[in-house]
Design goal:
Helix content: 40-55%
Mean pLDDT: 85
Largest sheet: 3 strands, mixed
Shape: globular
Structural class: alpha+beta
Strand order of the largest sheet: 1-3-2
Number of strands: 3
Number of helices: 6
CATH class: Alpha Beta
Length: about 130
């Protein structure tokens, strides 16, 4: 998939977030990269050869304190080649992008990995 098409999927995933979540997202840049860097893999404890689909880097909103303003934006990176490696169709790519964007946005709100996984299971069971 061309990068501009993939970026379009990422934007669409953001637009499809519930309004109450979209309205609370502050100071976050969402980018697309082909693959994570070695530093990103090390930072997350992801072994080389393992796959990282997305990454949140920043200070979760739950940690913001008085006088927090003026900081650089948090960064969410969605890794295109990693997602394409797992998806078997364009529809699966779209669904994975949506899930990864949601997952990383949850981290922005201070939800840890275990809780995000529980919420994902709950969310998928509602579908």
């Amino acid at each position: 998939m061309e990068i501009f098409e993939f970026e379009k999927l990422v934007r669409k995933a953001q637009e499809e977030l519930p309004e109450k979540i979209k309205g609370k997202i502050e100071n976050v840049a969402i980018l697309v990269e082909n693959n994570p860097t070695i530093e990103q893999l090390k930072k997350t404890g992801t072994r080389q050869g393992s796959v990282l689909l997305g990454l949140y880097e920043g200070v979760p909103e739950t940690k913001w304190g008085k006088g927090f303003g003026g900081n650089l934006p948090d960064k969410i990176t969605i890794f295109q080649e990693s997602i394409e490696r797992f998806a078997k169709s364009a529809e699966e790519i779209k669904e994975m992008v949506k899930n990864v964007v949601w997952h990383e946005i949850a981290h922005h709100f201070g939800i840890d990995e275990n809780e995000v996984r529980k919420l994902e299971i709950k969310w998928k069971n509602k579908k």
